[in-house]
Design a protein that fits this description.
Distance between the termini: 42 Å
Strand order of the largest sheet: 1-2-3-13-4-14-20-16-18
CATH topology of the largest domain: Aminopeptidase
CATH architecture of the largest domain: 3-Layer(aba) Sandwich
Helix content: 25-40%
Shape: globular
Structural class: alpha/beta
Length: 485
């Protein structure tokens, strides 16, 4: 009893201005301050458990093909069935369906009690990340080295990709039309690859250049071998040895590169970061740290004993890093075709215009080492929870969808009602740069859409950083959205 009186007295010591400030100011706190205290071991265990499962998924799915395949496996295990199994029939409430689009993009839905004309609750993320792609004729020999010519994919700082271990992922199609999957450099006994850099002793001229020019795109050639084939009559002995190894291991020839999709990504694994293990360092957080919570949220909805009120849909798209192009990107008809198969062509437009969506994509976390490009008052911060970005784009909001006030207010009400910690965030100061998501594509269909995701440090680098608690809070926020919108 005395303790309660003491607490009340302490509160009464606050001035009227202090009390008013508490009521009126919006000042998100670090979410860790509410975790790990006495009696809260359960929450901390959930956070770390979710982070561990996410790291496992990252290591398993370093490319869009691998991540979407791993996601499809989780859906099958949870009882989801292929869309084609419906045979054109409209699904009943509680049905769980998915479609794996050309092995790269993925759509899944849990059918709700309400008619599909009433709209969907949609989580839309992307599963491609910046990387190095092999050109169609990549293998050549120079000065007894075998090298692979690349074309970088997405927005990268090219110098960050030199002098690090790289792994080879992708698919070949051999002469018999068989698809052969390649994943080399991830196991401890696998060889790795690299792009060489110039030693500082000879780099005087290089170091005088702008960062964007110090390493050019055509310089990103991967070192692949140096041992010659033992035949004096062969001209390109090192190249031949590499091709002989590829032929022995995968049954391919040099011609096979023309139809192959081979990507090189950082060879290191996702790891806990910091003495306190509060963060995760890894390749591919953008945008898999949003794609995985979105997938898990739909799986949680699917595991409930009763169907959701509204249909829950998760869309994991490809090609976002290059403008969402191609037949697996968000600008294709893949998403609309999936929804049309669920609700029928005659209801498609009404369904889309009645739908709500979170464009599940990352935001730039404030970095004190580069404070000059951030607007402190409008930046997102690691550890402060889920980030809402009313608009993205660049300059005068070009390329943004700019969510309307009514929709944003409704989403925030759902978050508050579910105790989800959230913050606002913009991608840096006005005119300092910018970026986009798939939100503007969804908006063209008439969907109410808002950007919402995890704050990230070192975005688009080979080793990005996120907070475990932001990852977990994002999952909880996505789940609340699917249940209560």
């Amino acid at each position: 009893m005395a303790k309660e009186v003491k607490t009340k007295a302490k509160h009464d010591d606050k001035t009227p201005g202090q009390k008013l400030a508490e009521e009126l100011f919006f000042a998100p706190k670090n979410c860790w301050e509410e975790v790990g205290g006495e009696g809260d071991e359960k929450t901390e265990k959930e956070i770390n458990g979710f982070a561990d499962s996410y790291k496992e998924m990252l290591d398993k799915g370093k490319t869009e093909r691998e991540f979407s395949a791993a996601a499809a496996a989780l859906l099958k295990k949870a009882g989801f069935v292929p869309l084609e199994s419906l045979n054109g029939k409209k699904p009943e409430a509680g049905a769980k369906v998915y479609e794996h689009v050309r092995g790269k993009a993925l759509l899944c839905a849990v059918i709700g009690k309400m008619p599909l004309r009433a709209g969907l609750n949609i989580l839309g993320a992307h599963v491609d990340s910046p990387r190095l792609d092999l050109k169609q004729s990549p293998l050549y020999e120079d000065c007894d080295f075998a090298l692979l010519d690349t074309h970088y994919y997405g927005g990268i700082k090219k110098y960050q990709w030199t002098a690090i271990p790289l792994a080879m992922h992708g698919v070949f199609i051999n002469g018999k039309g068989k698809k052969i999957e390649v994943r080399l450099g991830e196991n401890d006994k696998d060889p790795v690859f690299t792009i060489t850099d110039l030693l500082p002793h000879l780099a005087k001229e290089q170091m005088q250049k702008k960062l964007s020019e110090a390493v050019e795109g055509e310089d990103l050639d991967i070192l692949a071998g140096s041992r010659p084939y033992n035949d004096e009559k062969v001209k390109e002995k090192v190249k031949l040895r590499i091709l002989s190894i590829l032929n022995r291991e995968y049954g391919i020839t040099e011609e096979s590169f023309a139809s192959a999709e081979i990507e090189f990504v950082p060879a290191f694994k996702a790891r806990d970061l910091g003495f306190d293990r509060s963060m995760i360092g890894a390749y591919g957080h953008d945008d898999r740290c949003c794609a995985y919570p979105a997938l898990r949220a739909v799986l949680e909805i699917a595991s409930a004993k009763t169907p959701p009120e509204k249909t829950s849909l998760c869309y994991l798209s490809d090609k976002e890093e290059i403008g969402s192009e191609g037949n697996t990107g968000a600008q294709s008809w893949g998403f609309e075709n999936f929804v049309a198969a669920l609700c029928g062509e005659e209801n498609l437009r009404h369904c889309l215009s009645s739908s709500f969506m979170l464009s599940a994509d990352v935001n730039a976390a404030f970095d004190p080492g580069y404070a000059g490009v951030f607007d402190k008052q409008n930046s997102s911060y690691m550890g402060k929870g889920l980030v809402f970005a009313k608009y993205t784009g660049s300059g005068g909001k070009y390329g943004a969808s700019d969510a309307n006030a009514e929709y944003l207010s409704r989403v925030l009400s759902v978050m508050k009602a579910n105790g989800i910690k959230w913050q606002f965030g913009e991608l840096g100061k006005v005119d300092k740069g910018g970026g986009g998501t798939i939100a503007h594509i969804a908006a063209k269909m008439g969907i109410e859409v808002l950007d919402c995701g995890v704050p990230v440090l070192s975005m688009h680098s080979p080793f990005e950083v996120i907070s475990k608690i932001d990852l977990y809070t994002t999952f909880k926020g996505y789940l609340a959205f699917l249940k209560d919108m």
